[in-house]
Write a structure and sequence with these properties.
Order of helices and strands: EHEHEHE
Strand order of the largest sheet: 1-2
Number of strands: 4
Largest sheet: 2 strands, parallel
Strand content: 15-25%
């Protein structure tokens, strides 16, 4: 099974596939919108996992930036110097 995740731009919104790959090998393609989660259940569960130290989110943050340096923050992500930055309002 192949799960398509992410949102393409309108220019990249076409997917070309050979039907023979699916027929012969009995493959399946499906989509996932926001992980197909129930936010009212999923978010509280994630918060509890984070509080318990079982969901390591802080390690994903590269740096914190004030709103005045938002362009610098975006540049570091675009050029590969950062994974995720936090913008402080």
């Amino acid at each position: 099974m192949t799960v398509i995740v992410g949102l393409p731009t309108p220019e990249d919104g076409t997917l070309a596939l050979s039907p023979f790959e699916f027929i012969d090998k009995e493959r399946v393609v499906t989509g996932s919108f926001m992980g197909s989660t129930n936010l009212q259940v999923g978010i509280p569960q994630l918060v509890e996992l984070y509080k318990a130290g079982k969901l390591m989110l802080d390690e994903l943050i590269t740096q914190h930036y004030p709103i005045e340096k938002i362009n610098e923050s975006i540049s570091t992500v675009l050029n590969g110097q950062a994974l995720r930055n936090i913008i402080m309002f």
